[in-house]
């Protein structure tokens, strides 16, 4: 492990949060002198100490110890995609790889005729969804409003309001959802 790079990551994460060295020491139960040594790359910490630092920063331990360059290209093969068959016969496939700290999903959805999966509650403020229909027809409910989409149509919605998807037609509907989901302030990121 590159101690200097680790120290720079800790220092950057602390600065991003507007925390002093003492504030991080208080939140992590690690002495300020030890934190200072870690940030300067002078001291190799135990996993327990690094986990305390990560907790104090509100991130997972892997965020501190993984090489950020390794996350610049993340491959997810078709065989690794999460394919979920839902009650009611509809299915969704999560196409995007998991990237720590990035709350984006690209999902392929198939709704059989007459399928109404229901309404989803609001995501945190600042969340967004983009929907693109490739086959059939989709009825979107966004709050109290309904929008009909046909093949080739697309829609954007601020996803901080209840919204739902339905195929009220006689043919299968296929569409994609690109979602950028914000997490509430203070939530632990990947």
In short:
The protein is an alpha+beta fold and 190 residues long. The protein has 5 helices and 10 strands, in the order H-H-H-H-H-E-E-E-E-E-E-E-E-E-E.
What does this structure look like?
The structure is a single chain. The chain has helices at 3-16, 21-28, 32-39, 47-57, 61-65, and strands spanning 82-85, 91-94, 104-111, 118-120, 128-135, 137-142, 145-150, 154-158, 163-166, 173-180. The chain has a six-stranded antiparallel beta sheet with strand order 1-2-3-10-5-8, with no helix packed on it. Helix 2 packs across helix 4. It is built from five helices and ten strands; from the N terminus they run H-H-H-H-H-E-E-E-E-E-E-E-E-E-E. It is of the alpha+beta class and 190 residues long.
Write the layout of secondary structure elements.
Layout: H1 3-16, H2 21-28, H3 32-39, H4 47-57, H5 61-65, E1 82-85, E2 91-94, E3 104-111, E4 118-120, E5 128-135, E6 137-142, E7 145-150, E8 154-158, E9 163-166, E10 173-180
Antiparallel strand pairs: 1-2, 2-3, 3-10, 4-9, 5-8, 5-10, 6-7, 6-9
Q: Main traits of this protein?
A:
29% strand, six-stranded antiparallel beta sheet, elongated, alpha+beta, 24% helix, 5 helices, 10 strands, 190 residues
Count of DSSP E strands? 10
> Could you spell the SSE succession in H and E letters?
HHHHHEEEEEEEEEE
Q: Specify the overall morphology.
A: elongated
Query: How confident overall, as mean pLDDT?
Result: 88
Spatial order of strands in the largest sheet: 1-2-3-10-5-8
Task: Figure out the total of helices.
Answer: 5
Q: Roughly how many Å apart are the termini?
A: 20 Å
Low confidence ranges:
185-190
Helix vs. strand class: alpha+beta
């Amino acid at each position: 492990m590159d101690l200097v790079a680790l120290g720079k990551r800790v220092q950057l994460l602390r600065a991003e949060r507007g925390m002093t060295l003492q504030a991080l020491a208080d939140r992590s139960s690690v002495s300020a002198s030890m934190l200072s040594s870690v940030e300067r790359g002078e001291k190799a910490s135990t996993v327990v100490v690094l986990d305390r630092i990560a907790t104090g920063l509100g991130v997972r331990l892997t965020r501190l110890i993984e090489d950020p360059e390794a996350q610049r290209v993340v491959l997810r093969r078709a065989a690794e995609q999460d394919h979920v068959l839902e009650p009611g016969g509809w299915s969704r496939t999560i196409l995007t790889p998991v990237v720590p700290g990035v709350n984006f999903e690209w999902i392929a959805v198939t709704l059989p005729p007459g399928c109404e999966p229901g309404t989803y509650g609001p995501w945190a403020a600042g969340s967004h969804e983009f929907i693109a229909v490739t086959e059939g027809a989709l009825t979107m409910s966004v709050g109290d409003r309904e929008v009909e989409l046909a093949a080739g149509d697309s829609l954007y919605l601020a996803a901080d309001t209840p919204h739902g998807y339905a195929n009220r037609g006689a043919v299968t509907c296929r569409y994609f959802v690109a979602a950028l989901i914000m997490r509430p302030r203070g939530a632990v990121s990947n």
